[in-house]
């Protein structure tokens, strides 16, 4: 193992783990993101196999464009579910594809702007008193989703789901605290496996999809060109492209979290222009082959925070397995049978450690909350973001609470005086 830039890392950015360790760590990332990545196409009506394929290809492209310097995993984005579902029902996938490609193009345009303007403005608008609460919101805003998955089955409360989620959480904590060596690197994967076994015992797992699936199953690839040739759908572009502003804020937030937990400044190296280009290219490619828009995943960031493994080799391995598994029907079906009780239980941990990373930013930078200015910035960010105080401009354009909280934090930081009048 090479010398780490981050002394806290077990495997740093360019450290390549031994093969078996590498295999286990990559599968851990795959299992962590699989549920959410496959859920998006299921909700919209797209092919889950294509979504798995595009998440893997998108991640590999992101790694290539960022020169293997950013350990980010690209998964299906939830921000575009409503317009994608609407367009798929009314027009068809060619319209969805054009919308997704337009989202990627927005990223590429912003990347071009950043190329000429630089990134010096980032430190100015994102000081610790803004960054810390925003990172906390990114994690805690997902708490409701995890809690719902950990208690509900078919929109009804089910005590079995509660028990499995709680057992999965406690097992993940125990594995993280008491295992060492190779197994100590895989607390999330082991927690998922343990929770899955318990879910099997209480009847929460349906294995029939595995039996029905073929060993080799070609994903249902589609394009932006319909059966009758190319037709441009401006409504699709107008309904989806503006939502790129939502995922752009997520991109900045996730990059902040990654920079914090890994000890590497990704805004400086490889630079925001490359991370945006990687993200945008991944979405363009997804739109070209039939997948949903993609974005970096908080679940995988949480795994890195827990395992202290930041290796791009591990992320690349997870992406490779995603591509391979998209063609192996029975393996994809098996992973898709992991119930929400298990993913919710693990989510309590993964989302919580992201929030804790935000808290660490505040502590490390000694942000003083006896000062009114810092308090007036943090308080609304936390409540607006966690409470999902969202802006819905139409049935298809909805800016999340996280996006609103991010913008609010930036504005407050720029306009509030350094010292409140009552403190002078």
Task: Give the spatial strand order of the biggest sheet.
Answer: 1-4
Q: The biggest beta sheet, please?
A: 2 strands, antiparallel
Beta-strand content bin: under 5%
Helix content: 55-70%
In summary, what is this structure?
The chain is mainly alpha-helical. About 65% of the residues lie in helices and about 5% in strands. Helix 2 (about 50-65) runs antiparallel to helix 14, helix 4 packs antiparallel against helix 14 and helix 19 runs antiparallel to helix 20.
Walk me through this protein's architecture.
With 424 residues, this protein is mostly helical. It is 67% helix and 3% strand. It is built from 20 helices and 6 strands. It has helices at residues 19-44, 48-65, 81-90, 93-117, 120-125, 128-140, 143-149, 159-178, 181-184, 187-201, 208-212, 234-240, 244-262, 267-289, 298-307, 312-325, 329-336, 340-364, 372-386, 401-415; strands at residues 74-76, 152-153, 156-157, 294-296, 391-392, 398-399. Strands 1-4 form a two-stranded antiparallel ribbon. The protein has a two-stranded antiparallel ribbon with strand order 2-3. Strands 5-6 form a two-stranded antiparallel sheet.
């Amino acid at each position: 193992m090479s010398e780490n830039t981050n002394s806290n890392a077990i495997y740093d950015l360019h450290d390549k783990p031994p093969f078996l360790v590498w295999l286990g760590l990559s599968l851990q990332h795959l299992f962590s993101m699989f549920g959410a990545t496959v859920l998006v196409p299921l909700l919209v009506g797209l092919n889950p196999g294509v979504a798995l394929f595009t998440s893997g290809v998108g991640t590999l492209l992101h790694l290539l464009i960022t020169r293997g310097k950013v350990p980010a995993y690209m998964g299906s984005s939830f921000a575009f579910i409503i317009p994608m579902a609407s367009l798929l029902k009314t027009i068809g996938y060619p319209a969805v594809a054009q919308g997704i490609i337009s989202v990627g193009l927005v990223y590429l345009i912003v990347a071009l702007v950043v190329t000429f303007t630089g990134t010096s403005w980032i430190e100015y608008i994102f000081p610790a008193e803004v960054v810390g609460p925003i990172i906390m919101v990114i994690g805690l805003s997902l708490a409701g989703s995890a809690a719902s998955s950990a208690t509900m089955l078919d929109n009804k409360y089910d005590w079995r789901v509660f028990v499995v989620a709680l057992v999965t959480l406690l097992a993940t904590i125990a594995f993280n605290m008491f295992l060492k060596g190779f197994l100590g690197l895989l607390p999330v994967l082991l927690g998922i496996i343990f929770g899955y076994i318990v879910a099997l015992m209480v009847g929460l797992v349906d294995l029939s999809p595995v039996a029905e699936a073929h060993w080799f199953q070609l994903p249902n690839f589609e394009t932006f060109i319909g059966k009758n040739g190319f037709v441009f759908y401006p409504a699709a572009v107008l309904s989806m492209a503006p939502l790129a502003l939502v995922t752009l804020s997520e991109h900045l937030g996730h990059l902040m979290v990654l920079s914090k937990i890994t000890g590497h400044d990704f805004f400086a190296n490889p630079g925001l222009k490359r991370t945006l280009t990687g993200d945008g290219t991944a979405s363009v490619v997804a739109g070209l082959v039939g997948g949903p828009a993609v974005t970096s995943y908080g679940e995988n960031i949480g795994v890195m925070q827990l395992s202290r493994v930041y290796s791009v080799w591990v992320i690349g391995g997870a992406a490779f397995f995603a591509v391979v598994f998209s063609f192996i029907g029975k393996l994809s079906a098996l992973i898709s049978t992991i119930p929400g009780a298990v993913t919710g239980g693990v989510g309590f941990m993964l989302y919580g450690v992201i929030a804790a990373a935000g808290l660490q930013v505040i502590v490390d930078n000694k942000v003083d909350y006896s000062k009114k200015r810092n308090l007036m910035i943090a308080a609304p960010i936390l409540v607006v973001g966690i409470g999902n105080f969202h802006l819905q401009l139409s049935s298809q354009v909805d800016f999340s609470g996280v996006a609103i909280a991010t913008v609010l934090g930036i504005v407050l930081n720029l306009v509030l005086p350094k010292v409140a009048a009552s403190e002078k």
